[in-house]
Structures are given as C-alpha cells and as structure tokens.
Amino acid sequence: MTGEAHVARNYAPLDVTIAGGEGAWVTDADGRRYLDMLAGYSALNFGHRNPEIVRAAMDQLQRVTLTSRAFRSDALEPFAAALAELAGKDLVLPMNTGAEAVETGIKVARAWGYRVKGIPDGRAKVVVAAGNFHGRTTTIVSFSDDPEARDGFGPFTPGFVTVPFGDADALAAAIDDDTAAVLIEPIQGEAGIVVPPDGYLRRVREITSERNVLFVADEIQSGLGRTGHTFACDREGVVPDLYLLGKALGGGVVPVSAVVGDEAVLGVLGPGQHGSTFGGNPLAAAVGHAVVDMLATGTWQERARQLGAHLDALLQALVGHGVTEVRTVGLWAGIDIDPAVGTGREVTERLASRGVLAKDTHGQTIRFAPPLTIRATELDWAVEQLQLVLAG
Ligand SMILES: *Cc1c(COP(=O)(O)O)cnc(C)c1O
Fold first, then answer.
1. Is the CB of 250 inside a 6 Å radius of any atom of ligand 1?
2. Whose CA is nearest to atom 6 of ligand 1?
3. Domains of the chain, with CATH numbers?
4. What is the DSSP letter of 244?
5. Which pLDDT score is estimated for 116?
6. Contact between 243 and 223 (Cβ < 8 Å)
C-alpha cells in the first residue's frame, strides 16, 4: 500500500514506502533497496536493527518493559551510571523525545537561575542562536526564527533572546543579570550542518563561566559519534553544563532522550517538579545502555572520523559541478545544490529514484548523515549517484 490518506499532512515524504531495514539499507514492499543516507536524522547512527541493540531490546522485552518511575527498575540506574560516565557528569534525567530533553533543559536552567543564581522570580532569560532547531513544542518554536516552524502557533513563551550563531561577542553582549543559560547546538544540524568558527565554543564556555550562566549544549543530532567524537563539543575540548541528548540514544529502536549534568545543576529538581510517564522506562534504559556501551570504546567515533574524511574528499570534488558548497564534520554533510541544477527537494527525488535516500533542508541544501555502519564503498556509490543526478 502506498499513500498516506489517513495520516495528517505535517510531512511531505519522498515517494518511497519502506517495509524493512538492515544496517545502512532499507527495502520497499516490492523488494527495491535503498541506501539510507539520512539515518532517521541521526537517530540510526548504528544502522537499522543493529544486532547488539536489538539483542539488548529483546532481552529486556522478555523481562519487564514499563514500570513508571513510581517504582525503581533494575535497568535505569545502570544506564544512568554508564551515560553519566560517558559524559563525565554526575546525573542523568531520562526523557523520551529530543524536544522533551530541550524542554527539560530549559526548566532546569530556569530553576537553577532562580534557586542558585538568585534571579528574581519570573525574569529568567535564555540566550539562543539564530537558525536554531530544537524541536516542535510551543515553547521551543517560540524561539525559532523559521517562519514555517513558528508562524500561526502563538502566543509564544517569553524569556528567550536570539543572537547570531557563531558570534561570541554578540552572545556576551546579550547576557545580563537575569540570564540563566545559553542554549545552542554546537553544530546546527537542521540549518544545514552549519559549523561555527573555530574557537567559538571555547569562547561560549569562557563567557558563560565568567558570567555565571549555564552552557546548555543541544547535542541531540550532533552527539553520540556523528561528528567523529562522542559530543560535538569535544571538537573544541569544551564541556557544557548540560548535555541534551536524544535521537541515536534510542538506537533506532525506541525514543530515548536525556539531560546530563552535574549535581550542582541537575540537582536543583526535586520530586514532583518534573517527570514523564515513559521517561527512563526499562526498555528505553536497556536500549540506551547498549548504545552507551558501544560508544564507550571510541571505535564508532574513530570510524565516523575516517569515513567522514573519505566522504568529504568525495563531496568536495563536486563543488563547481552542481554543488556550490560542502560542509562536512565527521560523517555528516551539508551539500548546497546549485539552483541551476534544481532545488534540494528535486535532487533528493532523483537520488531516491537511483536508490539513495537523503533529505533536503532550507531549499537548496541536502544532508547526508548515513549510519556509522556504512562502508566506504557504499559512500562511493552514493556520491556517484549524486554526481549522476547533478549531471542531469
Ligand atoms: C531532532 C532534534 C531535536 C528534537 O528532537 P525530537 O526527538 O524530534 O523531538 C532537538 N534538537 C536538535 C538539535 C535536533 O536535531
């Protein structure tokens, strides 16, 4: 069956109906194979049905899957301990989706602002970056500057100040005594893999430390191996106060998100002040734990670095041949398509007809974020298909 007559039209999927998936490949109902160069927007960093992750999920499915946090489960603390160690932090607050992690980060930052920093009640501000993408809730779209995401959904949540991304001086100037936090993506994913200037994250860390402001890093898309590091902040040796994690933390199996921070920050929340029926459920914890164990060895990060260098070399060769610019970080690429060739959407449609799945963003950009399990020869093939599409 194709078409989605009964599905609300908040997406415009490519004309591909996936019925199965394994590793970097998906298959449609007719058995046609496609190389998945989007990987669920980085939720499938370890590929479709990764055996280690599926095994952890299956084992947990046989034991207990949901307890609520009214009771303890034997899966949550081991997951939290492993994730805290991976991040070098004390505590983990488990949620489900990325947007929930962002909402949680905002609540924690405000609570810290009032209870620890001493901001007068109701005045806490959070500084965010232009071009951000942090999710789709009403509070989060309140500080989006993408008209499609925001227009017609007000009234909006106040308390956010927007500064240009990558401009540390503007960020410093926006901070005042009521500022609780700076919330940024270390690399902007939805914006098209926008990498800030070298040294920007270090400056953000210095400024926020000096001014007694929390640095909240949304690593929901950039984190967990994608950039060749556990966290994109590692590229500059920077440690934020809070990591917001999601997407790949669920191993491509279930939604798992988390806010990770030290006692001095995350410890501000007490019982009853925040929660989630499903957050930290045993199945999610087992899957998240498997993901953290896989990242703990560093081999996935190394693989992303090596394959990323290979992908970058392939893509840079296309600049001037239907591509105007390529930005690659680890196994993550934003490819700006020359308007003379067509729109990003048109390129993704032609790629799909050649067996390569990718997603456009902001009109002229397409994003490659394949599973980290992909092979170099598969990257060669994907870029060859792109080259053929660009050649018309
Ligand atoms: C995807 C994403 C989110 C939102 O995650 P959902 O699971 O879709 O709610 C937040 N921040 C960033 C950087 C993302 O890429």
1. no
2. 98
3. 51-296 (3.40.640.10), 297-327 (no CATH)
4. E
5. 98
6. yes
243 lines ligand 1 (CB under 6 A): no
Ligand 1 proximity of 97 Cβ (cutoff 6 Å)? yes
pLDDT on residue 2: 62
User: What pLDDT does 64 receive?
Assistant: 98
Q: Are the C-beta atoms of 254 and 283 separated by less than 8 Å? A: yes
| pLDDT at residue 392 in the model | 86
Looking at residue 257, its pLDDT comes to 99
Question: Taking all residues of the chain, what is their mean pLDDT, rounded to a whole number?
Answer: 98
Report the nearest atom of ligand 1 relative to the CA of 247: 7
Q: Where are the alpha helices (DSSP H) in the chain?
A: 39-42, 51-61, 76-87, 98-112, 138-142, 147-150, 168-174, 200-210, 263-266, 282-296, 299-316, 344-353, 376-390
The alpha carbon of 138 and the centre of ligand 1 are apart by a number of angstroms equal to 14
Is 41 close to ligand 1, i.e. is its CB under 6 Å away? yes
Contacts of 296 (CB under 8 A, 6+ apart): 82, 85, 86
Separation CA 114–CA 84 (nearest Å): 25
Q: Model's pTM, two decimal places?
A: 0.98
CA distance 255 to 253: 7
Residue 132 CA: which ligand 1 atom is closest? 13
Which residues does the chain have with pLDDT short of 50?
Answer: 1
